[in-house]
Amino acid sequence: MDTTDIAASGRSFSKGLGFRKSLMTLAASVMLATSAQAATPSTDEVNTTGLAVTDDTVTVGILHSITGTMAISEIGSVQAEKLAIDQINASGGVLGRQIDFVQEDGASDWPTFAEKSRKLLRQDNVAAIFGAWTSASRKAVLPVMEQYNGMLYYPTFYEGLEQSPNVVYTGQEATQQILASLNWAAETKGAKSFYLLGSDYIWPRTSNKIARKHIEDKLGLKVSGEEYYPLGHTQFNSVINKIKLKKPDVIFASVVGGSNVAFYKQMKAAGIDFTDEKPLLLTISVTEDEIRGIGGENVDGIYASMKYFQSLDNANNEEFVAAFKEAYGDDMVIGDVTQAAYLGPWLWKAAVEKAGSFDIDKIREEFAGIEFKKAPEGYVRIHENHHLWSKTRIGQAQTDGQYKVVFETEELMEPDPFPEGYQ
Amino acid sequence: MFDGYTSSELMSIFAMQGFAGLSLFSVFVLMALGLTIIFGQMGVINMAHGEFMILGAYTTYLTSGFFQSYLPGLFGGYFFIAMILAFLVCAALGALVEWLMIRHLYHRPLDTLLATWGLSLIMQQAYRSIFGAREVGVDLPQWMLGAFNVTDLVQLPINGLFVMIIALSIAVGLYLLMYRSGYGRKVRAVVQNRPMAEAVGINSAGIDRATFALGCGIAGVAGAAFTMIGSTGPSSGQAYIVDTFLVVVFGGAQSLIGTIVSAFGISQAQSTMEFFLSGSMAKVLTLLVVIGILMLRPEGLMALKVRR
NCBIfam families under this entry (chain A) (predicted)? Predict the structure, then answer.
């Protein structure tokens, strides 16, 4: 789906919302007449800080890139957040109010993200913002959220080393994604040596730092190489030669974006067959979304460490996938971050209802322990450090572009954004 | 830096890296030749060169889809058809662009830079609207996927060899066209002295259009070749354009031979350094060396002698 489609679906969506709103008003007046009004608390009670809350609506913000280089990744998140809002509205809204949203385009440009978040908080007075994707865009938005006391629900797996009273992190921080998967490779696959490979920016470098510490100090195994290539790099022949020569048991890959297409095609062309698992490739950056561009036959047999795969076999996920495809088309695929974005509006709703108020300060008191039992990934709970407890899963890529889950941690992993001894 | 490798391993390393360098070299040659022709013969800096490459790549993508749906039996050979189509589509668009836009700007070389940059943005947005913002994957026929095993360590990817053959054929073809054909003589005549060339009856406007179309067509073939090794997305063209300009400027912007020499130098240097240093560091060092040499030879490696 391209950006114009997104805009169009946004428009038709808000038209639908308008219609539903008038239905709601009708329903509300009927309810008034039958004096069953008690369910909806008065606006003065639930909003003491001037947020955009009326007797029947509450406004939130969606802030992602729908243009520019990051649109490829962020469009899935926008779709998921709109779907969640739509579903919440259909089930009666939040504190008896329908959710209205204002969507802004961060345009893959970090200053624009900061500007638009300021606009959403100061001008639209939104009660929550669902958005940002790259760490750079989050870091740009963060000071604005803290200055005006907004609340951001951030969906991407990321490098950790951050915790803000104004952000809820619905993706995994680094240890949740990495440690369990390295343990799995060592224990189940008997891996002895690891080759770390990534794109050259903060997330892969921090992730590999944590991975190296864990491999060398905790597992007592060997890192046989560590390598970074510029974003957008398309020639991987040299590193493929190095890998052939050093014969690591595991290639631990955090190459991002279009580079992945070149990387996996050239691996395959160089005669490396991942279904042999010699070497085994473990990625933390290739979701179902990326596979669409890389081509299933080029990634056949690789392993990915995520918390969510579209193929997860549980009732919540079945419903979620069906609803997502109904809303956006049968050929849609759902990646890890898209699911994490879907959690945002639901967790916000749970927190608002637990606090009995839209006020950010009151909600913040209630975050710890909030759970969402209908999460497509199974079940999630918010930790007091504003990250989620979640399971780490390993999936093996199939030629059809889907992952088959081969491992999951028994327990939810505790989020640890400042891992001791790993920095 | 050579620690930990046995001498036989070092031999393999140099063999493999030499080959990796040659693949990179052919990629550079494919990218840069179209740009060199247009700049060298017409003085136009085509900022939309990367987008023409991507047009070739999308043409290949469509052709592969067509063969899969309607002619699955002939899928093994679709790539040759795709290359021809890519050349024709890009050349046709190139001719159209020259007629609509470029020919009005010949007296203002800096404006062609702006105009073609605008064109590149328009083309990118068009790809985004037509094909979507996500990258598309192009399936390759089975015979193109494997590798020749020379020794245990040294393997030559078939698609790498194939890109090399394409690059070589185009370079030789271009040389013959420019230096051994009537068309080439006319092009060179127009470049050297436009009024005189017109006086002897050469249609200089037609030569301009054909040359621009030729450069764009070669970009299209390059794009078709790149679907074998890289990604195809609306903004992938930008990933190539910096390297392309680097090669062209370093080689001496007017010279076909200079372009080839510079592509060879840069690719081998980068490939060898990539093995012993990190990927990012290799790129930085390559850039530093290029800048250093350009400070000594501002006209590039093989500048034509021009009268001032």
Answer: urea_ABC_UrtA
Domain that holds residue A217: 175-306+395-408
Is residue A138 included in any domain, yes or no?
yes
Q: What is the pLDDT averaged over residues A7-31? A: 49
Interchain contact, B155 vs A271, CB within 8 Å: yes
In a domain, A125, yes or no: yes
Q: Do A265 and B228 touch (CB under 8 A)?
A: yes
Q: Which of A69, A245, A259 is closest, CB to CB, to B235?
A: A69
Q: Do A212 and A137 reside in the same domain of the chain?
A: no
Between chains, do B239 and A271 touch, taking CB under 8 Å as contact? Answer: no
CATH number of the domain residue A72 falls in: 3.40.50.2300
CA-based nearest residue in chain B for residue A234: B230
Partners of A227 on chain B (C-beta within 8 Å) are 278-279
Domains of chain B with CATH codes:
11-296 (1.10.3470)
Residue in B with minimal Cα distance to A224 = B4
Give the closest of A227, A258, A268 to B145, CB-based: A268
Write the secondary structure of chain A as one string of H (helix), E (strand) and C (coil): CCHHHHHHHHHHHHHHHHHHHHHHHHHHHHHHHCCCHHHCCCHHHHCCCCCCECCCEEEEEEEECCCCCCHHHHHHHHHHHHHHHHHHHHCCCECCEEEEEEEEECCCCHHHHHHHHHHHHHCCCCCCEEECCCHHHHHHHHHHHHHCCCCEEECCCCCCCCCCCCEEECCCCHHHHHHHHHHHHHHCCCCCEEEEEEECCHHHHHHHHHHHHHHHHHCCCEEEEEEEECCCCCCCHHHHHHHHHHCCCEEEEECCCCHHHHHHHHHHHCCCCHHHCCCEEEECCCCHHHHHHHCHHHHCCCEEEECCCCCCCCHHHHHHHHHHHHHHCCCCCCCHHHHHHHHHHHHHHHHHHHHCCCCHHHHHHHCCCCEECCCCCCCEEECCCCEEEECCEEEEECCCCCEEEEEECCCCECCCCCCCCCC
Instruction: Please tell me if residue A244 touches chain B, with a CB cutoff of 8 Å.
Output: yes
- What residues in A contact B23, CB-CB < 8 Å? 235, 237
Whether A103 is in a domain gets the answer: yes
Per-chain mean pLDDT for chain A: 88
Does B230 sit within 8 Å of A234, measured CB to CB?
Answer: yes
Q: What is the ipTM of this complex?
A: 0.79
Residue A13: is its pLDDT beyond 70? Answer: no
Dump pLDDT digits (tens) for A307-330: 999 999 999 999 999 999 999 999
Which of B274, B281, B285 is best to mutate for the A interface (most A CBs within 10 A)? B274
Quick one: A103 and A214 in the same domain? Answer: no
* pLDDT tens string A123-179: 999 999 999 999 999 999 999 999 999 999 999 999 999 999 999 999 999 999 999
Say whether pLDDT at A51 is over 90. yes
